[in-house]
Amino acid sequence: ANAQGRSPGEITAEAKKLAEKIEFPPGFGIELAGAARDQQVVFTAMITALLSGIALMYFVLVIQFNSFTAPLGVMMSLPLSLIGVVLALLLTGGTLNLMSLIGVIMLMGLVAKNAILLLDATRQEEAAGIDREEALMHAGRKRFRPILMTTLALIAGMLPVAIGVGEGGEFYRPMAVAIIGGTITSTLLTLLIVPTFYDSIEIARDRAVAKFRRRAARFTVAGGFLLTLVEALLALLLVRLLFRLLMQPLRLLARRRAAG
């Protein structure tokens, strides 16, 4: 097989597919060993570290914002950076290897920083009695320059590494490419999409609190909390949306029959 210019992960995956087509006798099979197995263990550990870091980040933000829902806007901004990572690696001909995965882990904190700057200014405006939408627009104008300056400084610092200057530059290049690509897209999308996420989440929270109060007055506090929690879980799983879509034609038929 031609292994020139290909990553070890691609070669291992192709070799494994070929080996799986072989019919082994009973009691025999295939198992990764050596460098391929070490790489698999490292990738698993890196993904575990990434998820653990995101969970820890959420709990820290819960303490900082004194809210369980406000940090969700920051958490939803994290996947936006992955768009830039994928595009940057595709444009440069890179692959998702150990260094690019390290870049993704570093990127999570950098992306969250921009969203935290934006939402922190928004919540300060809201605490002063300003309407949420007005606070979001004012915070965007207020924090645009600091976010843009830090982004440009980070990109400028990572450019020599992305170009591959110096000894061992090719080894660290995927990390810098992933950081630059993710930073560019996340900065643009953070200023546009994070305010929308935050506003939608807070509107949903206000509606849930209002429903809980009505149900607590009608039933009990525990019953109202349980019903509201189940409704929120169904909404997250899109079950509620599917139920509404299914019920909409039935309601239209019922209205036509009533009108007729």
UniProtKB/TrEMBL annotation:
Cellular compartments per GO CC: plasma membrane
Transmembrane segments: 41-63, 70-92, 98-119, 147-165, 171-198, 219-243
InterPro entries (alphabetical): Acrflvin-R (IPR001036)
Domain of life of the organism encoding this protein: Eukaryota
Gene Ontology MF annotations: xenobiotic transmembrane transporter activity
Pfam families: ACR_tran
Coiled coil: none
Keywords: Membrane, Transmembrane, Transmembrane helix
Protein's name in the database: Efflux RND transporter permease subunit
Organism (species): Hemiselmis andersenii
Lineage: Eukaryota, Cryptophyceae, Cryptomonadales, Hemiselmidaceae, Hemiselmis
